[in-house]
Amino acid sequence: MVGIEDMNLPWIPANFLALPPHQSDLATAGAVLIPVPCDSTTSVRSGARLGPSAIIEASYGLEDYDWELDLDVSQVGIHTTPALEPHTGNPAEMVQRVRLAVEEHLSPNRMVGVIGGDHSVCIGSVLAHLEAFPHMSVLYLDAHADLRDEYLGTAWGHSSGARRINEHCPVTLAGIRSMAPDERDYLNAANISAFGWPPGSGESREEYAERVIAGLGENVYISIDLDVLDPSLMSAVGTPEPGGMFWHDIMALLSGVADSRRIVGFDVNELAPREGPPACAYTAAKLIYKVIGLTSNSGHSPIAPKLQ
């Protein structure tokens, strides 16, 4: 009787882009993705804990080749780690857990991306990257300011991400459409650069991107809450906010950063797949794919296609 191991059967690898071993091996990977299915600080609609698995599964439908960039993104080498177990009883402990997971995979010739989960996962990832890039700045794309000092009993939740980050390095907010009065007061007192959406009257998306990018340093970490996108494009989020960015708006901004700065790491968060159509998971997967591709195609980044 022929054993399964001897049969030439087609298996689907359970990783981003469903890559075979030679393109997903950690030893040669130019990018590492860490799924973090944690949403214990969600305040409106829960379900972001299901986001990482939905994004990874949706990525199976992406073509490895990006015709806009003329690049086979898989040739960068993308390793997907197992999902990081959440600590649901202590948000501060979860921040530390994410930090240690990211630190484990950082190296000079590799980009690390975190797939959330709620937006609190960005705090630990940014803190880890700061160890490697002390003069890093953060581009924080979100419909909300996330500048609360404390919300629902914790200082480490999804409503406090930008504030905790700003205590350690410069943060620039973009795509903002909602904030509380105490967040406005902190924003002004801390002199944080914040750019609302939509752009000013008569301003193009490219001009908006130039204004945002002007205040960023050489090394940039990008943190993306999917609710920065308009609900008509991205309804599957916990706190949708009307009047957001569309695909070409966010691409103009990300392309501008990649062209002029070094993207050192990123996170993409807040997909709650049950709150919208399956296309939302595919859009989130494509966004991660684009960040890796844009970074790889840039002359400012050490990661580049290297696999055949």
Describe the protein's topology:
Layout: H1 21-24, E1 31-36, H2 51-59, E2 65-66, E3 71-72, E4 78-80, H3 91-105, E5 111-116, H4 121-132, E6 137-141, H5 161-166, E7 171-176, H6 181-189, E8 193-196, H7 205-214, E9 219-225, H8 247-260, E10 262-269, H9 279-297
Parallel strand pairs: 1-4, 1-5, 5-10, 6-7, 6-9, 7-8, 9-10
Antiparallel strand pairs: 2-3
Keywords:
single chain, 308 residues, alpha/beta, two-stranded antiparallel sheet, 16% strand
Q: Quick one: biggest sheet?
A: 8 strands, parallel
- CA-to-CA gap between the ends? 36 Å
Spans of at least 5 consecutive residues whose pLDDT stays below 50 are none
Tell me the number of helical segments per DSSP (H or I, 4 or more residues long).
9
User: What topology, given as strand order, has the largest sheet?
Assistant: 4-1-5-10-9-6-7-8
Shape: globular
Would you summarize the structure shown here?
The chain is of the alpha/beta class. The chain has helices spanning 21-24, 51-59, 91-105, 121-132, 161-166, 181-189, 205-214, 247-260, 279-297, and strands at residues 31-36, 65-66, 71-72, 78-80, 111-116, 137-141, 171-176, 193-196, 219-225, 262-269. 32% of the residues lie in helices and 16% in strands.
Give a structural overview.
The protein is of the alpha/beta class and 308 residues long. The chain is 32% helix and 16% strand. It is built from 9 helices and 10 strands. The strands form 2 sheets. An 8-stranded parallel β-sheet has the order 4-1-5-10-9-6-7-8, sandwiched between helices. A two-stranded antiparallel sheet has the order 2-3. Helix 5 links the parallel strand 6 and strand 7. Helix 7 (205-214) packs across helix 8 and helix 8 runs parallel beside helix 9 (279-297). The model has no long low-confidence stretch (mean pLDDT 92).
